[in-house]
Amino acid sequence: MLILLLLPTAAQASAYTTASIIENMNKAMRQPVVMQYKQEAYARGLLGFYRWTSTITQNGSDIQVDSQNAPSFVSADMMKDISDFRKAMERFNWEYTGITRRSGKEYLTLKGVRKPHLSSGATEADVLIDPATYLIIRIEARYSWGKMSLDQSYIYNDGVAYLEKQEGSLSPWMMKITVTYSDYKY
């Protein structure tokens, strides 16, 4: 009897593949080819308090970042990557590693290792994906300097999901970071 109760779970888990998860995620997170939006970031921790803004302009795969008052440890590439981690995922080899339970919910988990021919950016990353929406709800990226973890929430406009807010941490600096998104133009 116990085996019969486990069969649907085992069958459901085997239905997920790395390729199918990424394909569904790309469909769910599709956005206009040309758009612009604002990031407002606030970080606090051992290094102090920081507040800065960035304007992100996307035209296809060309993404421009114009940051004002960003601290020296925050690069334009980092702000670009967190604003659409789905695009940053192209720099990794991904593997579906199973279901992760977090706050009473289950998420699909992909683990990525930076492609060998690349020498900058995150070396490894884990993403948690909501199996109902296929949106990335958590990013954990490891860099040579430490780790960044971000939880993400979204707003919907005309059936398209846009980032609304990210909250997380930067270690080893014990910094908390909040990034809000606004002024979407497309």
User: How many domains in all?
Assistant: 1
In whole angstroms, the N-to-C terminal distance is: 55 Å
Average pLDDT reading: 89
The CATH topology comes to outer membrane lipoprotein receptor (LolB), chain A
Helix and strand content put the structural class at alpha+beta
Q: What is the CATH level 1 assignment?
A: Mainly Beta
Second CATH tier, the architecture: Clam
Spatial order of strands in the largest sheet: 3-2-1-10-9-8-7-6-5-4
Give, in order, the helices and strands.
HHEEEHHEEEEEEE
Number of strands: 10
Rg estimate, integer Å:
17 Å
Flag low-confidence runs. 1-11
- Which band does the percent of strand residues land in? over 45%
CATH superfamily membership? Lipoprotein localisation LolA/LolB/LppX
Q: How would you sum up the major sheet? A: 10 strands, antiparallel
Helix fraction by DSSP (H/I, runs of at least 4): 10-25%
Output the number of helix runs.
4
Q: Which overall shape is indicated by the principal axes computed on the Cα atoms?
A: globular
